[in-house]
Design a protein that fits this description.
By secondary structure, the protein is of the alpha/beta class. The chain has one domain: P-loop containing nucleotide triphosphate hydrolases (Rossmann fold). The chain has seven helices and six strands. It has a six-stranded parallel sheet with strand order 3-2-4-5-1-6, with helices on both faces. The protein is globular and about 75 Å long. The mean pLDDT is about 85.
Length: about 210
Amino acid sequence: MKPVFKPLTETDADAAHRAAMQEKQREMHELMAAAKDKRGLTIVHTGNGKGKSTAAFGMVTRMLGHGKRCVVVQFIKSGDTATERNLRCPLLQWHRCGEGFTWDTQNRAGDIDAVRTGWEIAVQAMQNPEVSLVLLDELNIALAFDYLPVAEAIAALRARRPHQHVVITGRDAPAELIEYADLVTEMREVKHPYKSGVQAQAGIEY
């Protein structure tokens, strides 16, 4: 005799959902209760997908909304299309220290000089007790091309103010930085309008 399978009733589905959510609630409460430490985080956004800098700028905006001082140091990128620099807030300092994409500049010595200029600003910001968040935009690119030694970058991160957050963006984050960081997000490209012949657009790419 074949077994008879009865479809779940609405009551059964509600009960199953409630049980699953209660288990998830228990897991989340355990995690939250175990999290006792509170300190500055090193956050890395990497991967070949779009949105690494955009997500970081969102963190800057959120921090400014809390009345906290932020410093943005942009490496590699030129300032011509960095529309975010038009943001006006007394709590925000913005420094452009790039000459453009490396495939356009084709000037390793010049790129290294620009990175060094930005890095000096970044280290000063990381030692400033009034700065709550430092965004090092596209620093991963500078590290990947060895414009700045990874060990030097990590040493400065270790020596920064204890409650200061640092967000680092860019493709190809070095393994040592990923290991050191507290929060790492890899953004993976699934589709991109460039592949369909669609141009970069204001407010989306720049």
